[in-house]
Structure formats: structure tokens, C-alpha cells
Fold this sequence. Notes:
Blueprint lengths: L6 E4 L5 E4 L7 E2 L8 E6 L5 E5 L4 E4 L5 E4 L13 E2 L10 E8 L3 E8 L5 E10 L2 E8 L6 E9 L2 E9 L2
Antiparallel strand pairs: 1-2, 2-3, 4-5, 5-6, 6-7, 8-9, 9-12, 10-11, 10-13, 13-14
Amino acid sequence: MIDADTIYIGGEQGALFKTTNGGTNWIDQSVPTLESITAITFAPGGQGYAIGTNSVVLTTSSSGNITLSTSDGKVSGLPKEFILKQNYPNPFNPSTTIRYELPQQSDVKLKIYDMLGREVQSLVSERQPAGTYTVRFNGSRLSSGMYFYRLQTGSTVQTKKMLLVK
């Protein structure tokens, strides 16, 4: 808390919120980290510090710019690029795991398609913060054969093949 009206709160996966009117309205100032923000303090003059799990330290000045670092000076835990990994196991029966990495908060769609391009299941359709994700797909209702899984985030799309063998 800076004063009675200006308050900061932190949460999981870099969630950071600020109010300047005593909590009536909140501004999302979340940062790209998988770590939780556990403590926030301000020094005289406006320099702010937020401490998180795994030695994450956030600093901010009166300019509002937020800097993220860890005890070793590196940003930890965040993917550097958008990646859709190959499912495992592949071939599978009846379930498999799909992993993907997001370097920044994105609107994510992960869908399964058959060989004719028909959508057979939507696994994810939501906004997600930067991080690494694992989704379990159960194909027990489907026939044996080749399927595609497609990950879309904004203008970025990646598709991979997987084989269901019963």
C-alpha cells in the first residue's frame, strides 16, 4: 500500500494488480512469470519491490516500468518461443499427452481433427498466461487412424500428427 487509495496486490503466475481509488477499480499489471508474487513493498521515493517464489524480484519506479529478475539475474520459468510439442505416447491407445509453450499471454485454441479436416474435439479455448501447458486427450470414442492436433494463438498456428491404434 502506498496510501489509502493506491494499493498493489500480487497472486499466482505473476498476477499483479493496482488500484488508485481504494479498491473500486483495479488495473491488471501482471508480469510474464510462472512464479507467485508473495510480498510487495515501496521505499520512500516510489521505488517498489515485489518478491515471488523461486527468488523472483520485480522492481518498479515512479515511471511505472516493471523489471523482472531472479537472484541470478535471469528471468526464470518462461518459454522463449511458441512451441507445440509432439504428443506422447505416439502411437497411443486410448489417451495421449499434448504439451505446448507460450512465451506470452495468448488466446489459445487447441483442437483435434480427423483426416478429412473435420473437428472432432476442442481441448482448449481460452486466454492463458505465458507458460508451459500439458493437456490430456482421450480418444476412446474415436476410431483407429491418423488425427491432427492444431494449436492456434493469434496469428500463430502449428499442427502435428498423431496415430490412434486400438
